[in-house]
Amino acid sequence: MKEFRRSLLIALWFAFLTFPILVIRVNTVEETVEWRWMNVLYIAAGSFVLSYLWRYMHKRKEQGGGDDAEGHRPFIHRLLAQRRAQLALLAGVALFAGVFPNLFSSYQVNIMITALIYVVLGLGLNIVVGLAGLLDLGYVAFYAVGAYSYALLNLHFGLGFWAAIPVGMAIGAGFGILLGIPVLRLRGDYLAIVTLGFGEIIRLVLENWNDFSKGPSGIANIPRPGLFGLELDLQQSTVYMYYLMIGLVLFTIFVVNRLQNSRLGRSWVALREDDIACEAMGIDRMKTKLAAFALGATWAGMVGVIFAAKTTFINPASFTLWESIIILSIVVFGGMGSITGVILGALALILLPEYLRAFSEYRMLVFGATMVLMMVFRPQGLITNVRRRYEFHGLDNAVGER
After folding, report:
1. d(CA 120, CA 342)
2. Within the chain, how many helices (H) and strands (E) appear?
3. Dist CA 199 CA 197 (whole Å)
4. C-alpha of 78 from chain center
């Protein structure tokens, strides 16, 4: 009853605040005043429902405890823990991915390619943010470096797509180290500001250095990837790019998973949890941070090459701060440190806006509201990264044998 009264009070307060804007309408041409009383009812009812739901969810969250507590694991984790469920899910996803270009139009395939590009970008940033705990707001700079590497090397030296991929990865890793060295002793907000500035510096250099990067005009006629010298039309090239991205996503998942379970991956997690304790345990904090920046930037550089080949045209407007925010949102929304969560987060945040173009005026409002709700009620993301637990039963067994 107490929550009901509070929600009712908030509804009345919102109705009072919005009364002059939504109820009174002055027609200056006919010099009349129109009273739209129904708007008061809509505002009051909407405010009451939202406030009540907000309070109800807060109360349920406080009473429910942690999702990861023993016996309270989320349903998705319990489902994925079953071997049969894993195999069935993988088989279904593989079948759908294999026949996708045959079921949908080229436009839908193009959208899916874009989503897969953001999947790889999200997995790359997940190394830096999700595993190492380093807030990077300039990740798009490495993405731009990879794209411009292919475009400029092809323009001046005729370098092909397949030769440009390792070059883009190497240049991206180099820029990752270049960023990592000055920020080795920074953390938190200071690290975020420096990385943000680095991303903006790269974009401004590309936009104003006309002799080098062609400035705002960009670089056009970038070749698409070839298939053993065969000439592909636009539709065939789109399908080929789709399957290429599927292979790249699988390769990225394999490498990131191996890194996550390696000694270096455990060092990243230790650095994320407590960098002082990490250093006290004998882990070189500086090398660990540099490795995170370099490997994260490597994937961004590689995807930048693919983006340039997909669009055949790039300019600095494609690599704004908003791209970094989207990639970071994918990692946070999906679940920091979780490979499955980042994949689902990328598909949700990239595909849903495309299929909700009918509500284009409200897309940013929905996006902001979704992120607020996620941060309040599920800050760990869609899928929480399950911590590994190591148990030693040797002593118990020895006592039992006696």
Report:
1. 9
2. 17, 2
3. 5
4. 24
Q: Count of CB atoms within 10 A of residue 159's CB?
A: 17
Contact residues for 311 (Cβ-Cβ < 8 A; gap 6+): 222, 318
Domain with 41, as residue range(s), is 2-57
The total number of structural domains in the chain stands at: 2
Average pLDDT, rounded, for the chain: 82
E strand residue ranges, 36-110: none
Q: How far apart are CA 333 and CA 67, in angstroms?
A: 16
User: Are 85 and 52 in contact, with CB atoms under 8 Å apart?
Assistant: no
pTM: 0.81
Q: Helices marked H in 209-315 — which ranges?
A: 210-213, 234-260, 263-273, 275-280, 285-311
Query: Do 162 and 239 fall into the same domain?
Result: yes
| Domain presence at residue 361 | no
Residue 115: name the closest of 383, 351, 364 by CA.
351
CB atoms within 10 A of CB 58: 13
* Beta carbons within 8 Å of 203's beta carbon, 6+ residues apart: 140, 141, 144, 316, 319, 320
pLDDT in tens, 83-126: 777 778 788 888 888 888 888 888 889 999 999 999 999 999 99
Instruction: Please name the residue that has the structure tokens 């191996």.
Output: 258
10 Å CB burial of residue 289 (0-12, 13-18, 19+) is: buried
**Other residues' Cβ atoms within 10 Å of the Cβ of residue 279:** 15
Phi-psi region at 186: left, alpha or beta (left = phi > 0; alpha = psi -120 to 50): beta
- Which tokens hold the place of 181? 């060295």
Residue 14 included in any domain: yes
In-domain check, residue 393: no
- Please state, in angstroms and rounded to a whole number, the distance separating the CA atoms of residues 324 and 297: 13
CA distance linking residue 223 with residue 77, whole number of Å: 43
Length of the chain as a residue count = 402
Q: Does any domain span residue 29?
A: yes
Q: How far apart are CA 9 and CA 181, in angstroms?
A: 54
pLDDT tens, residue by residue, 254-281: 999 898 888 888 888 888 888 788 888 8
Cα separation, 255 vs 258, whole angstroms: 5
Q: Are 298 and 88 in contact (CB under 8 A)?
A: no
